[in-house]
Amino acid sequence: MDCEFGGLDPELHDITEIAVVVTDYRLAELARGEWKVHARPERISEEGAAIGGYSEEAWQGAPPLRQVLGELNDLMPANALVIPAGQNVRMDVAFLERGYRGCQIPYPFDYHVVDLVTLFYTWSLVSGERVSALSLRQAALTAGLIENAVPHRAMADTELTLETFRHFIGRLALREPADYLPEAKELRP
């Protein structure tokens, strides 16, 4: 998932976009949704608008948050534990938790999160490759999935995050300890 906001503070800024790709535990796609969200202009900073592409004209007619959250809930598989995953997903969760609470709609997600930042950092430790940043852009560049910057929009970031997750999970496949710990060879019978 990915959300765009009018700034970085859930108490001061509104969600402007939400995008999700619902997957099973093996990352196979089950459903997807993307919404522009009606936001109050006074809760959109100039920087937030510039980063997320927000303009009053482009968001004219966008549905209110309550409607979007209802449609988002409709995408969720019934009777399944749904864990939010994304790039720096704690930020998205903070805004969504506030939004659900404000709309008096039960929060549908588990309290655990799966974050690409942690996966990318873990990969860098296991592979021995240093990374210059823990951003989605850097992870995707390292994975060879992009060559330049990508538009900072909710669905573009959601799709790229999912592709990047798939890439790095495939590179963290379990191996015998002797393959990566020289001292483990001595411990083998």
What can you tell me about this protein's structure?
- By secondary structure, the protein is α+β, with helices and mostly antiparallel strands.
- It has a single domain, classed as Nucleotidyltransferase, domain 5.
- It is 43% helix and 13% strand.
- It has 8 helices and 5 strands, in the order βββααβαβααααα.
- It has helices at 46-52, 65-75, 89-103, 116-127, 136-143, 154-171, 177-180, 182-187, and strands at residues 2-5, 15-23, 29-36, 85-86, 114-115.
- A 3-stranded antiparallel sheet has the order 1-2-3, with helices on both faces.
- Helix 4 (116-127) packs parallel to helix 6 (154-171) and helix 5 (136-143) packs across helix 6 (154-171).
- It starts with a strand and ends with a helix.
- The mean pLDDT is 91.
Termini separation: 47 Å
The CATH architecture assignment turns out to be 2-Layer Sandwich
- State the helicity in percent bands: 40-55%
Number of domains: 1
Q: State the order of secondary-structure elements, H for helix, E for strand.
A: EEEHHEHEHHHHH
